From TrEMBL:
Name of the protein in its database record: Heat shock transcription factor, Y-linked
Organism: Gavia stellata (Red-throated diver)
Keywords linked to the UniProt accession: DNA-binding, Nucleus, Stress response, Transcription, Transcription regulation
Cellular component, GO annotation: nucleus
Keyword presence, DNA-binding: yes
Organism classification: Eukaryota, Metazoa, Chordata, Craniata, Vertebrata
SMART domains named in the record: HSF
Keyword Coiled coil: no
């Protein structure tokens, strides 16, 4: 499975306490410290993602079009979301919220739109571009 499919499967299972649907299924909420332990700390055949680093996991979210959003402290309407958020706040833990318009619990068909964006690479301009702008500097000229 690709990254968004694995993430979806995690959110839909009752196996993980550190990650859940928030905002009525429009956002992914991650209890950061518990997630590091419960998900990223897995090894061997139980491993979910290729990384054990929260920074790398967040980079994957960004590459697939998720954006981190800030939450005001208005509580969720659904009981499971409310309880998860209350537990996290009571332990002074950090909850991260990520949003992607194509990652919505009510519209699973949109999941196929979650494509990995090409990474931006910094590189020197092609030699051909330099030649075109400065023909007198080309080896033949």
């Amino acid at each position: 499975l690709c990254f968004p499919q694995k993430l979806w499967k995690m959110l839909e299972s009752n196996q993980f306490q550190s990650i859940w649907w928030s905002e009525g299924g429009k956002c992914v909420a991650i209890h950061e410290e518990l997630f590091k332990e419960e998900v990223l700390g897995r090894v061997g055949p139980l491993r979910v993602f290729a990384t054990q680093s929260m920074k790398s996991f967040c980079r994957q979210l960004n590459l697939y079009g998720f954006t981190k959003i800030q939450r005001d402290f208005q509580r969720s309407a659904s009981l499971p979301e409310f309880l998860a958020e209350e537990a996290a706040v009571s332990t002074h833990s950090k909850i991260l919220y990520y949003y992607n318009p194509s990652f919505n619990r009510e519209h699973p068909h949109l999941l196929e739109r979650c494509k990995r964006r090409a990474g931006l690479r910094r590189r020197a301009p092609d030699a051909l571009e330099v030649e075109e702008r400065h023909p007198s500097r080309s080896p033949d000229g």
